[in-house]
Structure formats: C-alpha cells, structure tokens
Design a protein that fits this description.
The complex is a heterodimer of chains A (95) and B (271). By secondary structure, chain A is an alpha+beta fold. Chain A is built from two helices and three strands. The model of chain A has no long low-confidence stretch (mean pLDDT 88). Chain B has 271 residues and is mainly alpha-helical. Chain B is built from ten helices and no strands. Chain B is globular and about 55 Å long. The relative contact order of chain B is 0.16. The chains are: A alpha+beta (95), B mainly alpha (271). Chain A binds chain B through residues 1-2, 6, 27-30, 33-34, 37-38, 40-42, 45, and chain B through 52-56, 58-59, 62, 155, 158-159, 162, 166, 171.
C-alpha cells in the first residue's frame, strides 16, 4: 500500500424528513463513491440517517479564524435580533 | 449471544453421527444458512484492529455484525424446528467440526484485504438473490429473516464489488493480489450451487429457492464487477466441495478453536 493519504471528505447527514443535512464529521476515501460508502459505515450505524452528502473538504471555503472579531463580534450586542418573544405552536414542528 | 442453562446438550445420540444425517430438510437448510453466516461473520470479526484504515475497520465490523445477526435468527429458528432444547448458543458454539454445514468458501482465511473482499463478493453475489427469493419461502420465519437479510446482502455486494473494482483496476500490486485472490477462491464458488437430497426436498417444498435459478444473477454480478476490475476468472474443471456434509478444510478447526473457546472453557457464560 502506498503511503499517500486518501483525500478528506466532509459528511452531512439528514436524520429526518423536513430537517436540513447537518455536518457530522469527516473521513478519508479514495473517491466519491467510496466516501459515500464509508460515510454510511462510519456515521449511520445507529439509525441516524435518511440521506447522506459527502463533499471534498478542499471544496469548502472557510472563514479565517483571525477575522472572527471583525466578522462576528458586532452582532453580540444586538439582542433585539433574536426572536425570543414569540411562542412557536407545536404544529410548526422543527424550525 | 446469550447462553441459557439448558444450552448444553451433548447428545449421546450424535456421537455415532447417525442422528445428524437424518435431520429434516427444513432443519438442515436452516442450519446450513446459519453456519455460512456465522463462520463468515467470525472471519470478518478477525479484522477488528487490523483493517487498513479506520473507515474500513468499521465497514468490516458492520458486514460481520450483519452476518452474525442473521446467524442468530437462523440458529434460533433451527433450534425451534429441532425441538431438542438447543438454543442459538448451543448450535453456534457446542458442535463438533463435522457437524458444521457451512460451505468451504466462508471458512477460508482472510488472507490480505483483496482476498477478504473477493470472498465477500462471491458469497454476497450469491446470497443477495438467494435471500430475495427466500423472502417468499413457505416457511414464514425463513421468509422474514430473508426479507431483512436481503437489504444487508445488497450492501455487501455493493461494498465488496467497489473494492474489487478498485483493487483490480488499481496499481500493479493491487491487481496482482486481487487476481491471486480470485484464482485461490473461485474453486470454492461452485459449492454454493450444490443441491443434495435434503436441499432438493426443501426446494420442492417451497422452503428455499433453487440455486440454479439464481445463477444468471450471480454470473451477471460477477462478470460486471470483474470486467470493470480487469480481472479474469480462472478456468476450472471442477469445484471444491464437502462443507455441506461436514467435511471441512484444515482451516476450520483453528477457526472453531477460537470461536468456541469461551463457551467450552466457561460453559453457560453470559454477558
């Protein structure tokens, strides 16, 4: 076996109908087909999933942690943006 | 598996070997399917801690647990059919080598990763259509077990075929290893299709499908995967056989020594 590392993939799982896919972790795989198989075997062993997405990790553009003050600090003092004054009826389900 | 107090039944009538050959067809075909699943499941469990990558470690354990789950249901059913008080543990752990009725294919050593994947492909390419057909068995319990197992075996075909393709059509070394594995294991494929008198009786009673009716599906699965893998089937005049009658290869004794150790050393040990 060659020592070259397999590409890294990010795994997203939708647990129930109506929910969004959520990032659950990452894994190594030689290609997209095997990444999907590995995601199934690694992250859905306890009935977690209805649908799986895999995305090459290098396709994700991430924010720079050094810029977090500039990007996120200004919202900390704007509590009036949080819709905490509403009662959500049970029938609405997941939001 | 859990042991119960009455699990041990070292039937004296079995010592002369006459009893085991006069089992009903339903008991015998159920036991054979259970033995196939248990022994291959045990082989896959031997990969724990040794797989080439973490992801495959989990995948191999998943495949093994699917098979051991099938074996548990089948042994429980076989014990009920037999009606002699043997439960799943009694059948799984407390028989002698010549009382195991699995095909020789499943007891073959893991070898390298290519050998494990080729063995898995041959077995699941046969068992997937087998379970699909057995889902309409006249025996309701076999039908129920098959309906669940069919989905599991579909994934086993997918997983092992994808790996055989990548190994066969990979590097020079992976191709050589995959072809070596196929050459070594293909002689054991024919036994899957064997039909002896009790099997014939079970087929005619509508309990299990006729393997011959699955041959086209099996051939198509193998041909498609092997073509993409650039691997070639060895030409054979005859197949290895004997497991269904309890005549095993030299690997079986070592496998059972490990498989049975706990129950033999600590009878009725339970989790």
């Amino acid at each position: 076996m060659t020592e070259k590392n397999w590409p890294l993939w990010e795994v997203f799982i939708r647990s129930r109908n109506g929910m969004a896919h959520r990032h659950v972790g990452s894994l190594h795989a030689v290609d997209a087909t095997m990444a999907l198989a590995n995601a199934r075997d690694t992250y859905t062993r306890r009935g977690e999933g209805l649908s799986v997405w895999v995305v090459p990790s290098n396709a994700i553009t991430a924010s720079d942690p050094a810029e977090k003050d500039m990007l996120f600090e200004p919202t900390a003092s704007k509590i009036y943006r949080h819709p905490t004054f509403y009662e959500v009826p049970d029938e609405v389900g997941h939001m | 598996m859990r042991a119960s107090k009455d699990a041990i039944a070292p039937c004296s009538s079995e010592r002369d070997g006459s009893k085991t050959l006069t089992e009903t067809p339903l008991f015998l075909v159920t036991l054979r399917l259970a033995d196939d699943a248990l022994i291959l499941g045990h082989r896959l469990s031997e990969w724990c801690g040794h797989a080439p990558v973490l992801e495959e470690e989990l995948a191999l354990a998943n495949l093994g647990l699917d098979l051991i789950g099938q074996a548990r249901s089948l042994y429980t059913h076989a014990g009920a059919i037999e009606g002699a008080g043997r439960d799943e543990d009694g059948l799984a752990y407390l028989r002698r080598e010549n009382e195991y009725r699995n095909v020789l294919l499943v007891e073959q050593p893991n070898g390298d990763f290519a050998a494990t994947m080729v063995r898995q492909l041959i077995y699941s390419a046969f068992m997937h259509p087998f379970h699909r057909a057995m889902a309409s068995s006249k025996d309701a319990t076999l039908a129920g077990i098959a309906a669940k197992a069919e989905k599991e075996m579909a994934y086993h075909v997918r997983h092992s075929a994808e790996w055989v393709i990548r190994l066969g059509d990979g590097t020079e070394e992976s191709h050589r290893r995959a072809q070596d594995a196929l050459d070594a294991l293909w002689p054991y494929a024919g036994e899957l299709f064997e039909v002896d008198a009790p099997m014939r009786a079970a087929i005619e009673a509508g309990l299990v499908p006729d393997p011959e009716s699955l041959r086209a599906t099996f051939d198509a699965t193998m041909t498609e995967a092997l073509a993409e893998a650039t691997l070639t089937l060895p030409k054979l005049g005859s197949f290895q056989t004997g497991g269904r009658a309890g005549r095993h290869t030299e690997h079986m004794g070592f496998l059972l020594a490990q498989l049975q150790y706990m129950q033999r050393t600590y009878p009725n040990a339970a989790w």
